[in-house]
């Protein structure tokens, strides 16, 4: 698998950024958003960042993921919020600049072929764990 760093900036002139992969690519792609923050030149206004994607019915949906303001919340950690491409990040309110950072994980199908017998793993774990004994008084 490959792990790539991703970053983009949303501003008044560039209000959206779309991350997509080649439709013919046979790999599994995961996009994880780590941090959304205001950068140099931001005004003290509400900057709302939305993630635009598709739901299980293939309908477009937009979900706000960050509301940043220079004086009270200039940065938000999203703890690797996982998304499946294609996905668009949109500055729904404010003029930015807002920087988004995260990572893109590519798992090639042939890499995902390892299979373990769950019974073997649980047996090994049981052997390695020492029994819990009552405390001595």
TrEMBL record:
InterPro entries: Nucleoplasmin, Nucleoplasmin_core_dom, Nucleoplasmin_core_dom_sf
UniProt keyword terms in alphabetical order: Acetylation, Chaperone, Methylation, Nucleus, Phosphoprotein
Signal sequence extent: none
GO biological process, one term: chromatin remodeling
Domain Nucleoplasmin core: 5-105
GO cellular component, one term: nucleolus
Lineage: superkingdom: Eukaryota
Statement: the UniProt record of this protein carries the keyword Plastid: no
Residue ranges of the region described as Disordered: 114-137
GO MF annotation terms: chromatin binding; histone binding; RNA binding
Cellular location(s): Nucleus, Nucleolus
Residue spans of biased composition, Acidic residues class: 114-129
Record text on subunit structure and interactions: Interacts with NPM (via N-terminus). Forms a pentamer with NPM at a ratio 4:1 (NPM3/NPM). Two pentamers form a decamer.
Protein family (similarity comment): Belongs to the nucleoplasmin family.
Functional summary from the UniProt entry: Plays a role in the regulation of diverse cellular processes such as ribosome biogenesis, chromatin remodeling or protein chaperoning. Modulates the histone chaperone function and the RNA-binding activity of nucleolar phosphoprotein B23/NPM. Efficiently mediates chromatin remodeling when included in a pentamer containing NPM3 and NPM.
Name this protein carries in UniProt: Nucleoplasmin-3
Species annotation: Halcyon senegalensis
């Amino acid at each position: 698998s490959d792990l790539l760093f991703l970053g983009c900036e949303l501003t008044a002139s560039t209000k959206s950024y779309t991350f997509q992969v080649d439709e013919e690519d046979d790999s599994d792609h995961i996009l994880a958003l780590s941090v959304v923050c205001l950068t140099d030149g931001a005004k003290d206004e509400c900057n709302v960042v939305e993630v635009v994607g598709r739901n299980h019915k293939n309908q477009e949906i937009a979900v706000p993921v960050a509301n940043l303001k220079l004086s009270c919340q200039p940065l938000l950690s999203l703890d690797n919020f996982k998304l499946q491409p294609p996905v668009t990040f949109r500055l729904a309110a404010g003029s930015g600049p807002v920087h988004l950072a995260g990572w893109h994980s590519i798992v090639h199908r042939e890499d995902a072929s390892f299979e373990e017998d769950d019974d073997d793993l649980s047996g090994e774990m049981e052997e390695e764990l020492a029994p819990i004994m009552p405390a001595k008084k």
